[in-house]
Amino acid sequence: MSNEQPTNGQGGRAGSGAKQTQPAQHGAAASLKIGVLALQGDFAEHIAILRRLGAEAVEVRHPEHLVDLDGLIIPGGESTAIGRLAGIYGLTEPIHKLARGGFPVYGTCAGMIMLSNDLGDSAALMDGKPQSLFGVMDIRVKRNAFGRQLDSFETEAPIAGLGAAPFPMVFIRAPYIEAVGPAVEVLATLAHGGPVVAARQDNLLVSAFHPELTNDSRFHQLFLDMVAAASQGK
Ligand code: GLN
Prior knowledge:
Helix 2 (43-52) links the parallel strand 1 and strand 2. By secondary structure, this protein is α/β, with parallel strands linked by helices. 23% of the residues lie in helices and 27% in strands. Bound molecules: glutamine.
């Protein structure tokens, strides 16, 4: 595992959508099609882990790529860049509507920032206006919350519903969740009663850390289970 920034498009090309033909490990995931927002950040790592779990994973760059998906992942990277590019490519409104309408969406790090509806005073100003968000989850997120000293670090902590084994957590200029609304279930805190780093609100799942940069696929499996449950109800 490295502390490399997941940003700057490094390894960001998942080929021209070339499919890997690995056997599905989980029967239910085999029929699920997950989009990964591929405007900026570490979308290739999410695609790789989803395919390892037997799901179909595709890059989302234009609104038409949202058609026929069962779920969507917003990767880590830089939320100001993702927000700006989502606007340019006409994705802000469609993703906002999908997420509001019960469609399963998982955001990691910058993706968590994009899903939150409140950045408090940590919002960046872009041309004098607060940065653009999908703004669907009732959480107040603080950007770059761990300060300069703890720019990037690794730790582990248990996650509700994922068994007793602690989950490896990679943080890179990470946000945390400062406050949650009544509909939000806290899934993980760093220390007992410490910063909230994973949460769920109905169809929305977020983590401040990057499970896609570890070999532990339990968090992505949790999302696929949410997606499977939602697609059964379709
Ligand atoms: N600090 C970044 C932001 O505000 C998030 C970092 C990350 O996704 N690794 O968008």
